[in-house]
Amino acid sequence: MGEFDWEGFDMVVDAFLQNRLARHNKMSVRLSKKYGILDPPTVDILPHSRRGKCCILGFYSRSDNKIYINKHYLGCINMNTQYREVLKHELMHALSYQRFGIGGHGKHFKDICKEFDLTRRAMARCN
Ligand SMILES: [Zn+2]
After folding, report:
1. How far away, in angstroms, is 89 Cα from ligand 1 center?
2. Is 95 within a domain?
3. pTM of the entire structure?
4. How many angstroms does the Cα of residue 4 sit away from the middle of ligand 1?
5. What is the CATH number of the domain that holds 66?
6. Residue 1 lies in a domain
7. How far apart are alpha carbons 52 and 67 in whole angstroms?
């Protein structure tokens, strides 16, 4: 057997992640309309998937209105059932911030999650 083509492998993985990212961006626009988020966040890949000992699935950044998603999560999720959960969770942070100017997982966040019938798993913490 010849040597494994790591460069080709990296290109395939990269194309795969970009494809999933593009699908998340389309979904962000569609769901933002549904949730009444006036300025739909752009979705991008998290540069670091850990903060200390904590593993981060997703993160909403207020300063640039962006949702960052863990690339390992992005690569492993089942696109049919799970892929909306982290995205929905982060969109609730965006809405909470745009409506109340408040971040975190407090009362406003929980109320918004209930308003849009998020599953308990989607409501759970993002890290
Ligand atoms: Zn969160």
Report:
1. 6
2. yes
3. 0.86
4. 39
5. 3.30.2010.10
6. no
7. 20
